[in-house]
Design a protein that fits this description.
about 230 residues; alpha/beta; Rossmann fold; Alpha-Beta Plaits; six-stranded mixed β-sheet; four-stranded antiparallel β-sheet; about 30% helix; about 25% strand
Length: about 230
């Protein structure tokens, strides 16, 4: 296994210690969540965990969980006990950017439905402020997307259609993604409000004030980070 994948697995393994028998768990999606799902499947198969059910936020994670025999259910009205997912960036207060894998809308639905939301990843994802390295993914409907792109540009960033106009990327929801990159620092809460008010925007990848902790793996081990209010 490549060194980076070992770090991702180490972070996922730490998050697995939070899973208890009988829990309903949001499984996340993406490369680090892949290790979490694999570890959960192995524990259920070995009998060290029992009666755990999952909610998968993407077709990819649904296929992996099903292949491992993890029981899957629809997201119930009462929500989840725990959700674990990767991140593209995480700030010191555990605000995050997510969505470079394309499942941001379903991931946010799952995360917001969980009593406890935990981020996992490797130390490359730690930043001093959001937007240092990653763009802000914005899921939009296809109708009038060029107008939506112009409105996003008016917010001070440069929106790029994922996949390009010749072969645009399509989410599991059948929508497009504009990756909104900023050359200058932005205020995440203000940007989130502005994005939420734009017609044509389905969801954005700013996950603010949602995570209670993060497990971040590096060569020296796995650091456990807590949100200020946790």
């Amino acid at each position: 296994m490549e060194p980076l994948e070992r770090l991702k697995r180490a972070a996922a393994e730490r998050a697995l210690t939070l899973v208890e028998a009988g829990m309903l768990v949001g499984l996340g999606s993406g490369s680090t969540a892949h290790h979490f799902i694999a570890g959960l499947g192995a524990r259920l198969a070995a009998g060290t965990l029992q009666h755990v059910r999952g909610v998968a936020p993407s077709r990819e994670s649904e296929a992996q969980a099903s292949a491992l025999g993890i029981p899957l259910v629809e997201l119930p009205p009462d929500g989840l006990d725990l959700a674990v997912d990767g991140m593209d960036e995480v700030s010191p207060n555990l605000d995050a950017i997510k969505g470079l894998g394309g499942a941001l809308t379903r991931e946010k639905i799952v995360a917001s439905a969980a009593r406890r939301f935990v981020l996992v990843g490797d130390e490359r994802k730690r930043v001093g402020r959001l937007g240092e390295r990653a763009p802000v993914p914005v899921e939009i409907i296809a109708f009038g997307w060029r107008r939506t792109r112009r409105r996003l540009r008016d917010l001070g960033g440069e929106p790029r259609l994922r996949g390009g106009e010749d072969d645009p990327y399509t989410t599991d929801n059948g929508n497009l993604i504009l990756d909104l990159a900023f050359s200058d620092p932005f205020e995440p809460a203000a940007l989130a409000r502005e994005l939420g008010e734009l017609a044509g925007v389905v969801e954005h990848g700013l996950f603010l004030g949602m995570a209670e902790r993060a497990f971040v793996a590096g060569p020296a081990g796995v650091a456990e980070l807590r949100a200020p209010s946790a």
